[in-house]
Amino acid sequence: MPGHHIIVGGGLAGLTAAMKLAEQGEEVDLFSIVPVKRSHSVCAQGGINGAVNTKGEGDSPMIHFDDTIYGGDFLAHQPPVKAMCEAAPSIIYLFDRMGVMFNRTPEGLLDFRRFGGTKHHRTAFAGATTGQQLLYALDEQVRRYEAAGLIRKFEGWEMLSLVQDDSGDCRGIVAIDTRSLELRAFPGDTTLIATGGPGLVFGRSTQSLVNTGSAVSACYQAGSTYANGEFIQVHPTAMQGEDKNRLISESIRGEGGRVWTYRDGKPWYFLEEMYPAYGNLVPRDIATRAIHKVVFEMKLGVDGNPQVYLDVSHLDPEELNRKVAGVLEIYEKFAGQDPRKVPMKIFPAMHYSMGGLWVDYHQQTNVPGLFAAGECEFQYHGANRLGANSLLSCMHGGNIAEPAMIGYAKSKKSAVSSTIFDQELKLQREAFDKIFKMNGPENAFALWRELGDIMTENVTVVRYNDKLKATDDKLIEFKERWGRIGLNDTGKWANQEVLFVRQLWNMLELARPVTLGALNRNESRGAHFKPDFPERDDENFLKTTMATWSSDGPRFSWEPVDVSIIKPRPRRYDVDKSASEPKAA
Amino acid sequence: MAEQTQVLRIKRQESPNSEPYYEEFEIPFLGNHNIISMLMEIRRNPVTRQGKRVAPVVFDANCLEEVCGSCTMVINGRVRQGCSQLAEGLGGPVTVEPMSKFPVIRDLWVDRSKMFEALKKAHAWVPIDGTYDLGPGPRIAPSVQEFAYLFSRCMTCGCCLEACPQVNAHSKFMGAAVIGQVYLMSQNPTAKMNLDERLNAMMSEGGVADCGNAQNCVEVCPKEIPLTTAIGAVGRMASIKWLRDLFMK
After folding, report:
1. What is the rounded distance in angstroms from the CA atom of residue A142 to the CA atom of residue A140?
2. What whole-number distance in Å separates Cα of residue A205 and Cα of residue A209?
3. What is the pLDDT of residues A196-240, one digit of tens each?
4. Between chains, do B153 and A132 touch, taking CB under 8 Å as contact?
5. ipTM of the complex
6. Among the options A284, A502, A512, A571, which is catalytic?
7. Going edge to edge, which strands form the sheet with B21-28?
8. Alpha-carbon distance B104 to A89, whole Å?
9. Using CA atoms, how far apart are residues A566 and A584, in angstroms rounded to an integer?
10. How do strand A555-560 and strand A543-548 relate by DSSP bridges?
């Protein structure tokens, strides 16, 4: 008797799990707000890591593992990261077999380039649009199963909440059709959340409009622990925009791009000078803080503005077109200048959340029957994610979740009565009825702008305790103002505003463990930087922040980090990583 | 000096079967704006130029950087992605309309499921044995990859169908996009093994023979995919197969 599984989110992680489950003959209901091939994974540019070692460099999964743990400032539990690095080559090979048009070497093998935080060429890439090609390959495989009747896709549906039985176990979801606004309950032996990051909590980020973190927040509010929420990656190189900050891939630096600004009338290649060992390919948090310092402390922003240059004009345009055309196109289309001729103007932007739903080593959350994979969980990247490890962790998480979900479905307890579904449906309908009656003076989209501005100002690159506390106070005030929203759209068909009002509430809830987690952590580690506590403090803070929702705000507890394989050591990028071999388990 | 503004004249429609109508909105001009960011500005205070408070314009958008294909719309009569249409250089009132070749859900949001149905019909996937580890796939020459990669960027945005005269209420033509995908599959050594399956779809109703050679598709493809090359190549492959079938069956 096959299990019946619900997957929420159709990006790399969700599609991987769907494909693997269908391959085993399981039934899958896949939910996505947008047609799955439009998921945010499509924006990933640079590539996917795997120590395939076809460059004669003596690369290995162990070195990849050490680079990742070091890059993450020792915050990640080590065994799952090791497993990910060991699985990486086979993950890349599977994408290859699925038809991803990766760049090739003259001998026709997969080509690999260098990325941030490593000395080895281990990033497989398809131009500079790799996420798009990986996502499309999975989209195609899932379509194959859909055509065969093994996967049912609910595109244009948004998950609203979990259905839980009296023990709190997850038994399914309630979702809404974003066109007809029909609410429906869907039973499932397991539910996998793969809805990506919370970029919109920060207003403008490199993320897509579906990345509200709303589904994750619903799980958090239903009892799923949110871990290391304070670890937010701010990517060093993005184009500032009115609607989003567009990513300029790290692969630009991988191919020789140089970051600089003017000092005393001359170009100053500050990353190369500050970090001789890794230069422009230092990990993102290092590069972002350097840019921040140069612009805000040293007041050396280009034209006095918050921007510095990212320059590829010294590189061969043919080579650039072969390897990073997609990214250069984005700059051209949105800035109206040709980066092959003039340096690009960039500035750091919120990009990724290392933190997310807490999961065990089998991708199961603390809510039985609820699983999570991809950016929405906290497992693989510690305090800072290395570039090109995200695409890897998405597929790896999906791979790990599949057998765990099948196992759980087989072991499931007694059948559950339909009352719990009816009850949750009723709750959600009532919540919507309330929103439809809202007629106060506030506008949800304008309120969201304010949320984004303050989160970006106080909870990204540089954190101060007084500002964090003030931000949390502001969040509480925003929640109150949310109650005074007035709807401009009271229609019952394809009403995007009413859905957004709900998503906004969830964003406000999720912003609190992120902000307060940062407040509680009095050290600097990876992407989390407090000038008042500038050093890493393993004695007090080598632990995972665990946030549990309550009606008066997140309750915090901590879990020690499993550092059983590599002993923590100081993290520096001005010199080569110490030659200490990682200890075998 | 009066602040510079941008006027958007938007074709709206409340539901699939209601009558369309136009509404004008005026917002402060910013060179950095694009159509989507302007729609986002409008929804912060959705009041028409005539001072009427209305429901915010409903639109389909996600990535905002022209890689997802969501925000296809017709701007000043030309089909393109809304996010990459910058305000700079637009000038006077801009007309923003949904695509006409797809059923409207509401306002600028249309239903493109027929494009995904075409991908199913064409078996546009590589039929791998299984997801277990079998090591690397086949070697592919860089020159082959460089050309085939261009087709792997198709976002199923719909621009090519919108511009194509053969896609209309009286025809079943599937459009250029799916033909591009069949071509892409023909460049992959594994997928090529069952090219015939895809060619059968291309030779069936709404297939490659319905192309009328208007060549509008290449003009409007936001990713500049060489669609006509694919259509020519797939047409050739289909003809050869037809002859082969004729004499071998």
Report:
1. 5
2. 10
3. 999 999 999 999 999 999 999 999 999 999 999 999 999 999 999
4. yes
5. 0.97
6. A284
7. B21-28, B5-12, B94-97, B72-75, B78-81
8. 44
9. 8
10. antiparallel
